[in-house]
Amino acid sequence: MPTLRKWIVCVNHFILMLTNLIGSCMVADMDDIFPDRLRSEMSRRGVTCVQLARSLRVHTNTISNWRWGKAEPSTRQVWLALAWQLDCEVGWLMGEDQYEGVW
Questions:
Q1: Is there a domain that residue 2 lies in?
Q2: Whole-angstrom distance, CA of residue 93 vs CA of residue 56
Q3: pLDDT number for residue 5
Q4: Tens-place pLDDT, residues 59-93
Q5: Is 41 within 8 Å of 74 (Cβ atoms)?
Q6: Is 50 within the bounds of a domain?
Q7: What's the rounded Cα separation, in Å, for the pair 22 and 51?
Q8: Which pLDDT score is estimated for 27?
Q9: How many domains is the chain partitioned into structurally?
Q10: What is the pLDDT of residues 1-36, one digit of tens each?
Q11: What is the DSSP string of 77-92?
Q12: What CATH number should be reported for the domain holding residue 86?
């Protein structure tokens, strides 16, 4: 049977691991910029995943993957079409604050 001291060490280790996990989830990552901006623009313009997918001729799962940061547009043409559909700058959508000269 484990002693009280072993239980305390185990609990402290668990708390440390949990704290590290929560801390890493709360740090804003550069990879989150595109999905956040995409969701924001879609919401602001009232565009659904289905509407955007049809206009870009991609599957709705593709749009969903972009929205949740699982993937990004793979070609320049898709980035340009996406920005055009959402009426925003490509560079801004990609996460650039200074987007002049991105392409």
A1: no
A2: 16
A3: 74
A4: 999 999 999 999 999 899 999 999 999 999 999 99
A5: no
A6: yes
A7: 35
A8: 42
A9: 1
A10: 567 777 676 666 667 676 666 654 444 455 689 999
A11: HHHHHHHHHHTS-HHH
A12: 1.10.260.40
